[in-house]
Design goal:
The structure holds two protein chains of two kinds. Chain A is α+β, with helices and mostly antiparallel strands. Chain A is built from 14 helices and ten strands. In chain A, helix 2 packs across helix 12, helix 4 packs across helix 9 and helix 10 runs parallel beside helix 13. Helices cover 33% and strands 26% of the residues of chain B. The chains are: A alpha+beta, B alpha/beta.
Chain lengths: 406, 227
């Protein structure tokens, strides 16, 4: 009850000094904006990446000569590795008991042209007929290439939604012939739209049989990348071990040497991503926290001024029966109200700013409960830490001296 | 038992290299319902004595009983409690909160003993009516005359029904006509049964009291009943 009344006194004191209060608030607002922008943007990016990787499926893994390098040395070591080729893919297809589906694939870039329209840097993905069952591309219309297409090196392609939009506005692309590089291909299917990520258009692609690609473009230097779906999520680890053993023996890796290829699941990738970005995230949040500290110092400074300005008021309150804790509470409430309202304003602005920034790279974010709780506790904590000293100073004033203060 | 009883109280200020004795063994007894003036030249210790009686300070030595409670043994919180419930201060400079209305100024003591909002408003209005300011409740101090301000301060002192009204030079900042009004108000409050102690160096103010205690050099020089 007394607490409520004292809270009211604190609110009135803030309202009586509107300009000063809002200037004080600004420090906290700026600090909060920088923290929230960074937290929200980081979270939004991580979530998008997670969602993207999650699409690979929980029982799927990839094998390649090299997938992620963590340093220059790592890169130069891995670049010398032997490529993964069709023989490896065949071996896994034939020998791996825990693998349900295996598809070797490769990527390239080329001009995709229909009539007078073209996409300059279209992506080519080449794989076997079962690739469609493993990766996240879905057929929206038409079909994916079949085992027969693989055998006969059919000149057929499935096109991405972006290719349809750019080259075939108003025309049904199925059955039409387009050019990829210098060769002609018949369109047999259209993929479902993926949408852009990090400002990168992801729908400007064509998928063709790997055999056709090999005949027209030759094998790439980087070799193949094999995507494998295990029989089940539970058998994922065992399937990976099986593939590992097969590849090691095929490639002649001695028992005491490490793998000369990379294997990756969605989880491993996420973990790696997290560990790479962790230091970066902590550093960013640390740097932006400095501004909150500056905001806190501003609050402390203003509260010190308020205490000495209102010494007489404190004396009056004490003379008529306010206890130390009442005065302490009054000034603590003031700094808490300042910092938490500054925090709230900052959080809203920060979130909007993050939304804007992240929106520029085609991602969406929503405020997470964690960010809101963290933001509120940071701003309240700032109020407490930087408000306690001035409040204690006020509470400890001697009423006689305070009353005679001019 | 008496309302106020001090037994050989001393108040010594330690100024580093020397000790200053503001009070040197003051023993007085004041009964409930008395109207007492404490007089003396500056430096005689009358302000120190008032601070001690008002529980704003505690004696360095000696005992002080207020309503049979030994004040010299109390801690900060208990002293605040006594100031809140037993004592109503009236200061020379009024000491009102400048941004608050009369009503808020008067209800202030009630906030600190947890009185509910409705009861606070009722009691504060009552107290303002007692000092004839029922029509000034929404005015702020700078919208009131000096005499009105002092009456708001008196209403604030009365609002908790204290055992004692302690006035420190209550007319020091007022002209003689307004002073006379305020002193009449004190007379009226006294006749209604309030115990009043005023600290003053003005004879005209002291003459309203029924007893004058004179201090000199931190000790009681004389203690006379008048009227």
């Amino acid at each position: 009850m007394i607490g409520f009344s004292i809270f009211g006194i604190a609110v009135n004191a803030i309202r009586a000094n509107k300009l000063r209060s809002s200037l004080t608030l600004l420090g906290i607002v700026f600090g909060m904006v920088s923290i929230m922008t960074i937290i929200s943007a980081l979270e939004g990016m991580t979530n998008s990446i997670k969602a993207e990787i999650g699409r690979l499926g929980p029982s799927t893994f990839m094998v390649a000569k090299m997938m992620i390098t963590t340093s220059r040395e790592d890169y130069f070591k891995k670049i010398k590795r032997k490529s993964i080729d069709l023989k490896s893919a065949d071996l896994i297809t034939n020998e791996c008991n825990l693998c349900e589906k295996v598809s070797p694939r490769t990527f390239a870039q080329a001009r995709i042209k229909y009539g007078s329209e073209y996409i300059r840097d279209g992506r080519i993905m080449a794989g076997t007929y079962n690739l469609i069952d493993i990766i996240d591309i879905e057929v929206a219309q038409g079909r994916f290439h079949s085992m027969e297409d693989d055998l006969h090196r059919s000149q057929v392609v499935l096109i991405g939604d972006g290719v349809k939009e750019k080259l075939f506005s108003g025309i049904d692309p199925i059955g039409k012939t387009l050019r990829v590089g210098s060769k002609k291909y018949t369109i047999i299917g259209i993929a479902k739209k993926l949408g852009p990520m990090f400002g990168q258009e992801r729908d400007n692609f064509v998928v063709m049989p790997l055999s056709t690609y090999g005949a027209h473009f030759g094998q790439t230097r980087r070799g193949l990348n094999i995507v494998i779906k295990a029989l089940s999520v539970e058998k994922l680890e065992d399937a990976m071990d099986e593939v590992r053993l097969l590849l090691r023996s095929q490639r002649g890796v001695a028992y005491d040497e490490e793998d000369d290829f990379d294997m990756m699941t969605a989880d491993i990738f996420l973990e790696l991503l997290n560990s790479i970005t962790r230091v970066f995230r902590i550093a960013l949040i640390g740097v932006s926290s400095i501004s909150i500290v500056v905001g806190g110092i501003v609050v402390m400074n203003v509260m010190m001024v308020a205490v000495s300005e209102r010494t007489r008021e404190i004396g009056i309150r004490k003379a008529i029966g306010a206890k130390r804790r009442h005065i302490l509470l009054q000034f603590l409430f003031e700094s808490l109200i300042l910092t938490s309202s500054g925090g709230l304003v900052g959080m809203v602005i920060g979130h909007l700013l993050a939304k804007f920034l992240v929106g520029m790279i085609d991602m969406n974010i929503s405020p997470s409960a964690l960010a809101i709780i963290a933001g509120l506790s940071i701003s309240m904590g700032t109020g407490l830490v930087f408000g306690i000293y001035p409040a204690l100073k006020a509470a400890k004033l001697d009423p006689i001296k305070a009353l005679s203060f001019e | 038992m008496a309302l106020i009883e001090t037994k050989d109280i001393w108040r010594t200020y330690d100024m580093g290299h020397e000790k200053v004795h503001a009070l040197r063994g003051v023993s007085i007894v004041i009964e409930k319902g008395e109207y007492v003036a404490i007089m003396g030249p500056s430096g005689s210790g009358k302000s120190t004595l008032m601070n001690l009686i008002g529980c704003l300070d505690t004696p360095s030595k000696g005992e002080y009983y207020l309503n049979s409670k030994a004040v010299n043994t109390l801690d900060d919180n208990e002293l605040a409690n006594i100031r809140n419930r037993e004592i109503g201060f009236v200061f020379q400079t009024f000491n009102l909160l400048p941004r608050a209305t009369s009503l808020h100024n008067v209800e202030l003591p009630l906030i600190y003993n947890g009185t509910s909002t409705q009861e606070r408003i009722v009691k504060a209005k009552e107290a303002l009516a007692k000092v004839d300011l029922a029509d000034r409740i929404t005015h702020k101090p700078n919208e009131l005359s000096g005499g009105e301000r002092q009456r708001v301060a008196i209403a604030r002192a009365l609002v908790n029904n204290p055992s004692l009204i302690l006035a420190d030079e209550p007319t020091g900042n007022l002209d003689s006509k307004t002073s006379e009004e305020i002193m009449k108000l004190f007379d009226r409050l006294h006749s209604q049964g309030n115990t009043i102690i005023t600290v003053t160096h003005e004879q005209s103010v002291a003459s309203h009291a029924h007893r004058i205690i004179s201090l000199f050099d931190g000790a009681v020089a004389s203690d006379k009943r008048i009227n």
